[in-house]
Automatic annotation (TrEMBL):
D-isomer specific 2-hydroxyacid dehydrogenase catalytic domain location: 16-326
Keywords from the UniProt entry: NAD, Oxidoreductase
Listed name of the protein: Glyoxylate reductase
GO cellular component: cytosol
Single GO molecular function: glyoxylate reductase (NADPH) activity
Keyword Phosphoprotein appears in the UniProt entry: no
Amino acid sequence: MSRPKVLLLGKIDHAHVAWQTIADIADVIQPKATNRDEFIAECKSGALDGISVAYRTFDSVKITGKIDSELLDAFPKSIKFLCHNGAGYDQIDIPACTAHDVRVSNTPTAVDDATADVTIWLLIGALRNLPIGIEALRAGKWRGSPPPALGHDPQGKILGILGMGGIGRNVATKARAFGMRIRYHNRSRLSPELEDGAEYVSLETLLAESDVLSLNLPLNPSTRHTIAAPQFALMKPGIVIVNTARGAVMDEAALVDALASGKVSSVGLDVYENEPEIHPGLLANPNVLLVPHMGTWTQETQQKMEEWTIDNVRLAVKEGKLKSIVPEQTGLAA
Ligand SMILES: O=CC(=O)O
């Protein structure tokens, strides 16, 4: 019997030992293509025929572009499983995968601690106006006392968490240690055990009453621009916003306006609407603390994410199922 074929889209950087367990049970194929047109041509040439499972990284979008109907039409019909290395899978059109009978997995929980850690770092940094001080220091303008922009303490402030999944709940746990009062809004209310004392409120209340707003919801067609001009208008003046989810859950141009008007006093960002481009209005604003999509960027978490994704590949090859199928596909027959 011929060996199963696994397509590797992207690289394994850390979990080499775990990846070897895949090479032991399957033929691993890497595309030669370096862009989408070449990749579609390579699929059509038959070079990838027989592949049943694909492992993909966030960065492999440079080779394939979005995983959409056009790409799925070009893929060999044998493909049944797409194992994505990452928590957010907005690069993948899930309804199109379902229509093409392709099951998709992601890496929930593996990213929670690292992403929540960066969220807290951005939250404190934005609250305390750290970018202003850092910039003054770098520009040689420090003369012995800090710049006049006094920050705020987190203690006693209301943290509104929009999206109370694994990352949101992890942020809540850590923010409690800073004395913050936690409120949240989610598609549905959590069990009291998962809420752990956080108060469930409407989106309008979350916007109107939060001192700090943390965005922790996934990006999909229904969450795009959840925070746009009408939502900024509802916010408590002087609110601080942190986004470690995806840039496009917030309208970046509207954020620039809200910062300029003072409605938003400061912001901490890890993600951007059109990565790797950053709106010039954000770059130019000293009230913006920014890092380049580093939420999961630690040795330990990258290793965990690769191992988690490899677990999905192994299960797909050996048993025709996934450890962490995306929620949109749970309940579908394998
Ligand atoms: O952005 C990081 C992830 O989606 O895992």
